[in-house]
Amino acid sequence: YAEARQAEIIAAAEHVLGRRVPCLYGGSVNRDNCAELIACPHIDGLFIGRAAWAVEGYLDILSRCVAKL
Length: 69
Description:
69 residues, mainly alpha, two-stranded parallel ribbon, 3 helices, 2 strands, 51% helix, elongated
């Protein structure tokens, strides 16, 4: 779902702006879905909310994303 929605958003922004702009995904990013999300070609980064309130949670998400890239 996230990949398809991001592709639509990027296409709409590109149509309006005349160029591709980076687009972050911020729909309930957590340790269980972050690696899958960051691997999607239309997701340029993650907006992490509650899952990163604790430093440990943030570092866990970062390490999972780095391992996937």
